[in-house]
Design goal:
The complex is a heterotrimer of chains A (190), B (444) and C (349). Chain A is of the alpha/beta class and 190 residues long. Chain A is built from 4 helices and 8 strands. Chain A has a single domain, classed as 3-Layer(aba) Sandwich (Rossmann fold), CATH 3.40.50. The model of chain A is unreliable at 182-190 (pLDDT under 50). Chain B is α/β, with parallel strands linked by helices. Chain B has one domain (56-379, 411-417): Metal-dependent hydrolases (TIM Barrel). Chain B has 13 helices and 18 strands. Chain B has helices at residues 75-84, 103-116, 139-145, 160-170, 196-201, 209-225, 237-248, 259-263, 267-271, 294-306, 341-350, 356-363, 365-371; strands at 4-14, 19-28, 31-35, 44-47, 52-55, 57-62, 87-92, 120-123, 177-179, 192-193, 205-206, 229-231, 253-257, 311-312, 391-401, 420-430, 433-437, 442-443. Chain B is globular. Chain C has 349 residues and is an alpha/beta fold. Chain C has 2 domains: 30-158 and 320-340, 3-Layer(aba) Sandwich (Rossmann fold), CATH 3.40.50.1370; 162-318, 3-Layer(aba) Sandwich (Rossmann fold), CATH 3.40.50. Chain C is built from 13 helices and 9 strands. Chain C has helices at residues 41-58, 82-94, 115-125, 139-146, 162-176, 194-205, 240-243, 257-261, 268-275, 279-282, 305-308, 315-335, 338-348; strands at residues 72-77, 98-103, 129-134, 150-156, 183-187, 209-213, 235-237, 249-252, 290-292. In chain C, β1 (72-77), α2 and β2 form a beta-alpha-beta unit. In chain C, α1 (41-58) crosses α12 (315-335) and α3 crosses α4 (139-146). The chains are: A alpha/beta (190), B alpha/beta (444), C alpha/beta (349).
């Protein structure tokens, strides 16, 4: 498998619809839910899930954004690029928070997000929804809702593109030899 | 020294006698026998082919720091530095501790020099007691002890009346007052030259007017008294203009300029000799008078070329490392300049701003004439037969890198560290003794 | 001849400790923050954006993040300053750093310990960042050449106060948006003001029109004379009524007692008559012009009480912004890749 598209726009659409239903089912309704999208691509995903829920459940789930730049540990640190954005997290005290991200990999970013969320207040529960789980966890972290499980090797590169952030839509896996190095856009370790 | 030395085949430049010829210089018993022409007889041979052979340089302005400040320099190390720089005579400024304001300190300096110095030391006595600028020192006694002039250098003679009296009184002995021209009121707290660089660095600075006003005052006083004033380390266009005009009127004013004021600007304080964009706050470029604007530097070079400024004097000011390794405001003023003087001034020759012959004149007979030193030491600064055997061998094209750690001077404080200079002192002979020998030119 | 921005090609020639090239990708490569004189537009933008994030942190219920956990920040102040020092201390603590305050007056500095020895000692003790305020211009440059850790200049003599310049810029941008083309008038003792100088650099880099207003005795040499590439381009005015016309920002500087008796100006009365920022003068500026002051204010001298506390005064905002801006600076300086290099050095010692 050299360069394969593992999810088409239609696949992504279906996955999001399914995740939205799973969230509502698992939580017995949409009341008390808060979605927090991880910058950058977790945000449009969170918005789409919330929109889907609004359509079939008639409930508006608040959507916030979270930048974990100030919570990263050394191993997720790369080079001199240090852009961080303000987060916008709604009130989470006593709420069921669903963290939303595009790719789950080592789990370190999620750990950082958990630290951040807890600093914002005390949620009743925190759940995790991801579009893609590529394996290779380094921490005891699991996703509650997964769009697609994609086994990869560590050297592979997983690319998620969404209309809102990239103008195109797909999930692609590029095998080791062809992985392009050094692009500051991509998060290699998740 | 009864040794006979033959310096063979060099280009002999003796500006005092208008000599510029390839030939041989013969020395015997510490005196010049002949310069130019054939050389017969036995003797120690020095191969000077490809080199310049000139009278040893004469420095009118050096701080040997001895007595009292020997941690910065002493007569032994200072004169070794002079020898490396090609200077065979050094005039020692009196701001020692205690200051050279009485006979016994002068005699100490001369005794030390006789015992330990590599080159001739001529003392300059203080103008005022304790250099305090209030009462005249015993100028007559100082003159009798061997002083060649009077100065409170480090400090100006601030009180105008005292300066007037000093000029009048010193004229009894035919000796000049050498003034460090600085209006202390204008220059209060200043650590550099006032200009865009001082604004950039946020350092307190003195305008050129601080020197110009003081020089104008001094030439007016010298004129009124009919006395000789020598302006130490002139550095501004305005002061040079005053000197030029005064001299045209017949005022007995002479002047010296330092190698750094002929070549370096205030930008060196900010960016170092290497230039660049990084602010260095180079304390090794902190000096008084400060490094000035390019226009002032140009004026100094023009004046040196046309003779308005009579000579080059180093204002050698050695300091200990910790006195420079600190905040700019706290650092001591001064550059250790004996060993780089010739190389730095050769920049002007290589840039065709002054001829090599003129440069040598301004470092040999020029200073002698300015202060009338040939009265104390006949023949000094020349290669005339019978003159003291003070000789320097120069290679005007040799490139070398300034390494302060290798200075003979205890003072390593120079902004030129790491700079490549073109022009080197290859050997120095003082009173017939080889006191510096770079490349083993002396063949036994 | 020097240029204000280091050309890319020279970066390799500049010795590592002080090299500061900044690429357009928003990267931060500075180890030190000494002055704003060589900041690019991109670097200034990066600080502003980062400060936005830090402001959000400060608004949280628990304003605390672990970003600088394990980092030791030492504030080394040779001059007293309540506001700047506490601002840095708070900034460090919000970011989770350990902050140690060294007041030079009470330390072995009074026993004559040199600046070089002092900073070396603090580095040996484990300082990662040295925040220095000193009464002598250039002192932090000496410190930066002496130690491996980062040096942040909290004000050196008459020379620079870069974090003040940054927080002033942040305050202006919050109200004005882009400062390009805006007229900023700085009035007061420019000669002795490091705040004015730092603001000059950042504002002119971003294309603002800067007017300096002061009596000639309080203006530094060379400014306003078009010395391009050597000093920032500014207009110099000695008449405040004329200077303030159409201004978007009026920044008053503190007029110190010593200057008023030191022959720079005849006294407080004449100074305030000619140079005080008061309501009448403010009326000549644009309707919503910002009034700013680095503090502390001498009300009645350089600024009237009415204006100091009036609707247009942004002085309090400046102080508030100071913490966010200093957080941004501390984070940017600590977070770049040299951190790992320092960690490696520590391990090797």
């Amino acid at each position: 498998m050299r360069d394969a598209t593992v999810m088409s726009p239609a696949d992504i659409r279906r996955a999001i619809t399914r995740i939205a239903h799973e969230i509502v089912e698992h939580n017995r309704g949409a009341e008390g839910l808060v979605f927090v999208g991880m910058l950058t691509r977790g945000v449009p995903l969170a918005c789409r899930i919330a929109r889907a829920i609004a359509e079939f459940e008639g409930e508006q789930v608040p959507v916030g954004t979270l930048d974990v730049g100030l919570y990263r540990d050394d191993l997720t640190e790369r080079g001199p690029t240090v852009n961080i954005q303000p987060s916008d997290v709604p009130d989470v005290a006593g709420k069921r928070v669903v963290l939303v991200d595009d790719v789950l990999y080592t789990g370190r970013t999620v750990r950082a997000a958990l630290d951040a969320l807890i600093d914002y207040g005390r949620p009743e529960r925190i759940q995790l929804a991801v579009l893609v789980d590529r394996g290779h966890r380094e921490l005891p972290i699991r996703a509650d809702f997964v769009g697609k499980n994609i086994p990869t090797s560590r050297a592979d590169d997983v690319q998620v593109r969404l209309e809102e952030t990239d103008g195109e839509e797909y999930v692609r896996v590029t095998a080791a030899e062809e992985a392009v190095a050094g692009s500051p856009e991509r998060e290699v370790l998740r | 020294m009864s040794e006979r030395i033959i310096i063979r085949g060099g280009r002999i430049i003796d500006p005092a006698n208008g000599v510029d010829v390839v030939g041989n210089v013969v020395i015997e018993d510490g005196r010049v026998v002949s310069a130019g022409g054939s050389a017969t007889g036995a003797g120690r041979e020095i191969d000077a082919r490809g080199l310049i052979v000139a009278p040893g340089f004469v420095d009118l302005h050096a701080h040997l720091r001895d007595p009292g400040l020997e941690y910065k320099e002493d007569i032994e190390s200072g004169t070794r530095a002079a020898a490396r720089g090609g200077f065979t005579t050094v005039c020692a400024m009196p701001n020692t501790e205690p200051p050279m304001d009485n006979r016994s300190i002068v005699e100490y300096v001369l005794r030390e020099a006789a015992a330990r110095a590599s080159v001739r030391v001529l003392p300059i006595g203080a103008v005022s007691k304790g250099r305090a600028g209030k009462e005249l020192a015993e100028l007559g006694d100082l003159a009798a002890a061997g002083c060649v002039g009077f100065s409170d250098d480090g400090a100006p003679v601030a009180e105008t009346t005292l300066m007037r009296r000093a000029l009048e009184y010193a004229s009894i002995f035919g000796l000049p007052v050498i003034d460090h021209c600085e209006d202390k009121s204008l220059a209060q707290d200043a650590v550099m030259h006032e200009g865009w660089v001082s604004t950039r660095l946020g350092l307190r600075a003195a305008p050129a007017a601080a020197e110009i006003a003081a020089v104008a005052r001094d030439v007016a006083l010298a004129e009124a008294a009919g006395a000789h004033v020598h302006i130490a380390h002139v550095s501004t266009r305005g002061a040079i203009d005053e000197i030029r005009r005064a001299r045209a009127r017949g005022v007995r004013v002479t002047a010296e300029v330092t190698p750094h004021h002929l070549t370096l600007t205030d930008e060196v304080v900010a960016f170092g000799c290497a230039g660049g964009d990084e602010l260095l706050y180079d304390t090794n470029a902190k000096v008084n008078p400060p490094l000035r604007s390019q226009d002032d530097v140009d004026a100094c070079v023009e004046a040196l070329a046309d003779g308005t400024v009579d000579c080059i004097a180093t204002d050698h000011a050695p300091h200990a490392v910790i006195e420079k390794l600190c905040e700019f405001d706290e650092a001591a003023f001064g550059i250790s300049g004996l060993e780089t003087a010739f190389g730095l001034c050769m920049r002007l020759v290589h840039q065709n701003k002054i001829s090599l012959e003129t440069l040598i004149e301004r470092m040999t007979i020029g200073p002698v004439r300015a202060l009338g030193l040939d009265r104390q030491v006949p023949g000094i600064g020349t290669l005339a037969p019978g003159a003291p055997a003070d000789i320097v061998l120069l290679d005007p094209a040799a490139e070398w890198v300034v390494e302060p750690e290798r200075f003979a001077s205890k003072g390593k404080n120079t902004p030129l560290a790491g700079v490549t200079l073109k022009g080197r002192v290859v050997a120095t002979i003082a009173a017939g003794r080889i006191v510096h020998d770079e490349t083993g030119v002396a063949v036994a | 001849m020097t240029t204000m921005r280091p050309p890319e090609a020279r970066a390799a020639d500049i010795p590592a400790p002080l090299a500061a090239p900044a690429a357009a990708d928003g990267a931060w490569r500075r180890r030190h923050l000494l002055d704003l004189d060589d900041f690019t537009v991109d670097e200034l933008d990066l600080v502003m954006r980062t400060a936005d994030t830090m402001k959000e942190v400060l608004q949280r219920e628990v304003p605390r993040v672990p970003a600088l956990r394990g980092t030791t920040i030492v504030t080394l102040f040779y001059e007293n300053s309540t506001r700047t020092r506490s601002s840095f201390e708070l900034a460090g603590k919000v970011l989770g750093a350990d902050v140690i305050n060294v007041a030079a007056a009470s330390s072995s500095v009074t026993k004559g310990e040199s600046l070089v020895d002092t900073v070396k000692t603090l580095q040996a003790v484990g300082a990662d960042v040295l925040v220095m305020r000193h009464s002598r211009s250039g002192a932090p440059y000496l410190a930066a050449r002496t130690v491996e850790c980062s040096v942040v200049n909290a004000g050196d003599g008459l020379h620079a106060h870069p974090t003040q310049g940054l927080l002033d810029l942040y305050t202006m941008r919050a109200s004005l948006g882009d400062v390009r083309g805006k007229r900023v008038v700085i009035v007061g003792d420019i000669l002795h003001s490091r705040v004015a100088r730092s603001n000059l650099w950042s504002l002119t880099t971003l294309g603002a029109e800067v007017v300096l207003c002061a009596p000639p005795t309080l203006l530094p040499a060379g400014l306003g004379r078009g010395l391009e590439g050597k000093l920032p381009p500014v207009r110099v005015e000695t008449d405040l009524d004329r200077a303030v016309e159409g201004a978007d920002v009026v920044m008053a500087l503190r007029m110190q007692l010593e200057r008023m008796h030191g022959g720079f100006v005849p006294g407080a009365r004449e100074y305030s008559r000619l140079y005080q920022v008061n309501a009448a003068r403010l009326a000549r500026a644009k309707p919503n012009a910002l009034v700013m002051h680095p503090g502390p204010m001498n009300e009645g001298v350089e600024i009237s009480h009415e204006v100091a506390h009036g609707l247009q005064s942004h002085v309090e905002e400046q102080v508030q912004n100071g913490v966010a801006v200093r957080m941004a600076v501390l984070w940017l300086i600590t977070r770049n890749s040299t951190r790992q290099a320092r960690a490696a050095t520590k391990g090797a010692l």
